[in-house]
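Board notes, transcribed. Complex of a protein with D-xylitol-5-phosphate.
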Amino acid sequence: MINERPIIAPSILAADFANLQHEVEMVNASAAQWLHIDIMDGVFVPNLSFGIPVTEAIRRHARKPLDVHLMIVHPERYVEAFRKAGADVITVHLEASTHLHRTLQQIKSTGAMAGVAINPHTSVALLEDTLRDIDLVCLMAVNPGFGGQKFIDQTFQKTAALKAMISRTGAATLIEIDGGVNEQNAAALLQAGADVLVAGNVVFSSDNPSGVISRLREKQGN
Ligand code: DX5
Ligand code: ZN
C-alpha cells in the first residue's frame, strides 16, 4: 500500500453517481493515493448512501486502495462482505462498536487495514488502550452523514493530541481527517500530525478536480 504523506483520499460521496466510472477514472489518473467510500445506514447517521454492490462496482474500475468508512450500526456484521467487495482499509466508528478490540482483530484477520473513526464529540483519549491495534484513526471534522459541511476547528487540537499519544506509545497508527478539508486548512492539519486527508466537495465540485488533488498533495506537514 502506498503510504507517502500526505495521502489524499477523494470521497466518492461527492461524485456524480450517474458517471461513477468517469469519476473513478479521474481519481485513477490523479495524484490521489486512496479512494474514500462512505457507507451510511440511516441509523448511525441521519442519511443513506450506498452499499456493497456499488463498492464492488467502484472496485472494478479503481486502481487505488479503497478506504471504506462504515457509518453504520453493528459494523462487525459487514466486515467480511466489504473486504470481499474490495475494501483495503475498513474503518468502523468507536461509537457504534461495543467490542471494538474484537472488531479490530476481525478486520485484520481479513487482511485489511483496521481503522477507527470518532465523532467530533468523542475524545481521542478513549483510543489510548487500543491504539497499538489500530492502523488508522479517522478524526471526524464534521458530524458524519453529509458532505459539504463546515470544518470544526477543534479538530486541530484533537489531531495534535492524537499525534502526541501515537508518538508516546510508539504505535504506527495513521491519522486521517474527514470532513470539511480544503486548500486553506490542509497544511495546518498536516503540521498538527495528519497523514491522510479525505476530500469530498472541494475535489468534486471543482472544475479541475485533479488540480485540487495535486495542490492538496503538495501541502507540507512537519
Ligand atoms: C461525512 C463523510 C465524509 C464526506 C467528506 O459523513 O464521512 O467522508 O464525504 O466530504 P467533504 O469533504 O465534502 O466534507
Ligand atoms: Zn468519510
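DSSP finds eight helices and eight strands in the chain. The domain at 7-218 is CATH 3.20.20.70 (TIM Barrel).
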